[in-house]
Design a protein that fits this description.
CATH architecture: 3-Layer(aba) Sandwich
CATH class: Alpha Beta
Order of helices and strands: EHEHEEHEEE
Number of helices: 3
Radius of gyration: 14 Å
Largest sheet: 7 strands, mixed
Number of strands: 7
Strand content: 25-35%
Structural class: alpha/beta
Helix content: 10-25%
CATH topology: Rossmann fold
Distance between the termini: 12 Å
CATH superfamily: P-loop containing nucleotide triphosphate hydrolases
Shape: globular
Bound molecules: adenosine-5'-diphosphate, magnesium ion
């Protein structure tokens, strides 16, 4: 496991940028952490590292936004399940085609809400609010050079 403490939001952004070099197409990254923990900031850095020029904002009224890669085919699929509650109709089958798209990368905010449906190879990143500027960011597997 890799554990990193970031000291401001630029630091978290930069960590995401570096993370982009360590992941592969077909990867599914599940982000778990409370509101304000830095999930979107980390994903914005990751998107920059993937050379996505569009501004990444959390999908709010949809579960998913797709950003095409500049080079080659494939997308960054950005999911946010903040608004998902247990009373809602939810059909995971709608999302399987994205998770199993081997040309693309899926990043999932509030992944704890759909954890039981996620593929086995999902990589988990847990974020904790430590204080006003500090965030603890834990990767389930050690990632060299972050
Ligand atoms: P989430 O998507 O987990 O709700 P965001 O990334 O949207 O979180 O928000 C994080 C907020 O916390 C931003 O306003 C950001 O500027 C602030 N912040 C302060 N310190 C940090 C840090 N070390 N890492 C990330 N965000 C930080
Ligand atoms: Mg967010």
């Amino acid at each position: 496991m890799s554990k990193i403490i970031t000291k401001n939001s630029q630091h978290t952004h930069k960590l995401g940028f570096k993370l982009a070099k360590k992941i592969n197409k077909g990867d599914i990254l599940a982000f778990i952490g409370d509101l304000g923990a830095g999930k979107t900031t980390l994903i914005q850095g990751l998107a920059k590292g993937l050379e996505i020029k569009e501004k990444i904002t959390s999908p709010t009224f949809v579960w998913l936004k797709a950003y095409p890669f500049k080079k080659g085919k494939g997308y960054l699929y950005h999911f946010d399940f903040y608004r998902l509650n247990s009373k809602q109709d939810f059909n995971i089958n709608e999302f399987q085609e994205y998770f199993y798209d081997t040309d693309s990368i899926s990043v999932i905010e509030w992944a704890n809400k759909i954890k039981k449906y996620l593929p086995k190879n999902t990589k988990f990143i847990r974020l904790n609010y430590l204080d006003k500027n500090k965030r603890g960011i834990n990767f389930d597997k050690k990632i060299k050079g972050l």
